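Table S7 (text form). Paired inputs.
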Amino acid sequence: MTAPARSVHFAALVAKQPDNELFRFSLAQALLAEDRGADALEHLEACARKKADWMMPRIMLGKTLLALGRRAEAKPWLADALQLAIDQDHQDPEAELRGLLAGL
């Protein structure tokens, strides 16, 4: 499935089940693959807000906000993701997040 076809596919699934965080996460990934970060933000944020212990949407949300030049908005998401990485013993994401936050 091509990248645009993936986003269309997942957008249809999200339209049918807007509370399904896995569909929203997949749609966000497809949108990011199409360089449509601004469109992915709402879906990443919905995922992060729905599951307090889900690190990946927070990392992706923070990185996307950074890419869009929205550093102040990115920082709390990245800090939250860092705490989850520490709590969940994810060493590689922890190191990456510490580096990102140090640059802010």
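Next pair, protein 2 of 2.
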Amino acid sequence: MKRLVVLGGGESGVGTALLAKAKGYEVFVSDKGKIKENYRQVLIHNEIEWEDETHSESKILNADIVMKSPGIPDKAPLVKQIREKGIQVVSEIEFASKFTKATIVGITGSNGKTTTSTLTHYILKRELNVGLGGNIGDSFAKQVLEHDYPNYVLEISSFQLDDIDTFKPKIAVLLNVTPDHLDRYDYKFENYIASKFRIAENQTKEDYLVYDADDEVITNWLKEHPVQSTLLPFSITKKVEKGAYLEEEKMIIAIDNNQIHMSTNNLALEGKHNIKNAMAASTVAHLLKIRKQTIRESLESFQGVEHRLEQVLKINKVQYINDSKATNVNATYFALESMDAPTIWIVGGVDKGNNYEELFAFVNEKVKAVICLGVDNDKLIDTFGGMVDTIVETQSMEEAVKMAYKLSESGDNVLLSPACASFDLFENYEDRGRQFKDAVRNL
């Protein structure tokens, strides 16, 4: 009997443990932190051995295979020990994919993953039996065990791709690559780019890579590191032979002499970046033979995802917008780009080596006040202090929202778009977004 050790007792860890047990593995789950009560109950109920608030090396280093949670870095001493012993380390995506023959759509990129994955799933589920998982929602492994859908849309982070071996999606989508998580990649951008491109490393010419042809990082990398996949680029600046492009106000998707035309004026989601997300999702749907009418209707009715440019409330003619999911500078770039009124910007958190330069033009043009929300705000104050009339420091969401309320005038926007991770003051970006919405509702 093979022994699988799962490091991390969260959604992906517990899902993997359940699937492994069902497939005849001896399973042990170990979490250095505290395992949440609901996950603990699942493990107890399924008679899976587990421990939390410690890692017992004697029970871990005798594994045949280790599934580690994407949150645990390779630099962790325990992971180094495991690798030194020659034990295979895999991600949940890698492990679970061995037990399904489903058609997999894998979506990655620095930004837009959740929106594009959710939108793609939203279109496909109208005509196909399809699961949504990966970095979002229910664990992929658990879905393979309980539903074994014939199709999956998986949102995949670079951390999940770092530990694949044979995983290959039928359709891979690479939305964009901008510097993010460099703290996990020895502060080398090329390491992070290589990690994103692993989504295509096992693909053959029968598989597809859908990617942004306007993204120089992607196009330059492809020139130097060609992939086997059939390429389907999308662009909002130039015409492509195969793939998706814009012509006047129309989005055109062209694959094998079969074209879809769609007006971009009717898209439910606003902003240039969302035209790209819609192109990527539509290309996937077209490849999977979804009817044109269904694709059109879906793009016109899709309402977006929580914590991503989510309109919360209008109070005294001031619009409050929750973009807590903007955990890097590029995501905040899109948010500020789409602001069409004077904006009070709430920013800050755990800085992952951010360079704020690309935001300067928007800050000068649109931002009237900056509210810093983080434990350490020095870099923000140094960077933006000279650009705006008002810059203030706050230590809690309630305080930040009250300050925004004081500084705002009729017709303004109040935008939470932190450009940073949330772990200094919040559990995660969802917690941060929910606290923002609660604080706005309590004004």
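The CA atoms of residues 316 and 410 lie 6 Å apart.
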